[in-house]
Amino acid sequence: MNWTWFHRLGSPPTFFRFAEKLAPWLAALALLLIGLAGYAGLFLAPPDYQQGDAFRIIYVHVPTAAISLSIYVLMAVAGAVALIWRMKLAEIAVVSAAPIGASFTAVALITGMLWGKPMWGAYWVWDARLTSELVLFFLYIGVIALNSAFNDPRAAARACAWLALVGVVNVPIVKYSVEWWNSLHQGSTLLSVQAIQKPKMSFDMLWPLLMSLAGFYLLFGAALLRRMQNLLLERERRARWVQDWLGEQN
């Protein structure tokens, strides 16, 4: 297999131009899918037989919670690549993904609290799933703070990579906390083998959730590409390819 395309994509100018073409398409498709999923979730999906209309927050809560875990895993993988091969784009990916991951985690926590009030009678309980998700949020904040603590951006990125690798142990705790401990939080609705083999939702409730999940993943992809582009421009502002690109824009 020819891997030259991968090495070319690892080049900052090649990646920048690739992201410049791809990001708008990802953002447009993401907004379309999220909009359709929101309409279907609010107006087309029937009320839940137990939770009534309160369940509809699932169309935001579940995708953002799932993506909050995926982003941290991505950061850990990128961190490993950055530490082993000293790849500049991997370092930038770790630093760029952290604020996006923190945002998705915050939305997951807030929507979970809003959902918990009518279900449990309280906005917050020290449940295993909620607590480990809160730890995940603090890990994201830790990466952001660590990146700001260094004057050398590459040294900062490597420190963030180490924290991402150490903190990734929390991801399976978040994912399997419902099965490992006595938890108030309901089991996986979508992202488990059992849920795929025997769905817990009827199809008219499930398809907007799948569409919302795809839309939010595409939104993350677009946001990550744009943040990586901005960091590349900042770090390589004196490079010839940046000057050439700026000249093309003018």
Structure report:
With 250 residues, the chain is mainly α. It has one domain: Up-down Bundle (Four Helix Bundle (Hemerythrin (Met), subunit A)), CATH 1.20.120. Helix content is 78%, strand content 0%. It is built from 10 helices and no strands. The longest helix has 33 residues, at 12-44. The chain is globular. The two termini are 40 Å apart. 32% of the residues are buried. The model has no long low-confidence stretch (mean pLDDT 88).
Unreliable residue runs: none
Percent in helix: over 70%
CATH top level assignment? Mainly Alpha
* CATH architecture assignment name: Up-down Bundle
How far apart are the first and last residues' alpha carbons, in Å?
40 Å
As for the CATH topology, it is: Four Helix Bundle (Hemerythrin (Met), subunit A)
Beta-strand segment tally: 0
Q: What general outline do the C-alpha atoms trace?
A: globular
SS field, number of helical segments:
10
Main β sheet profile: none
Mean pLDDT: 88
Cα Rg: 20 Å
Total discrete domains: 1
Measured by DSSP, the beta-strand proportion falls in: under 5%
Task: Furnish the topology, listing elements before pairings.
Blueprint: H1 4-9, H2 12-44, H3 58-85, H4 88-120, H5 128-148, H6 153-167, H7 170-180, H8 193-197, H9 203-235, H10 240-249
Task: Write a brief caption for the model.
The protein has 250 residues and is mainly alpha-helical. The protein has ten helices and no strands.
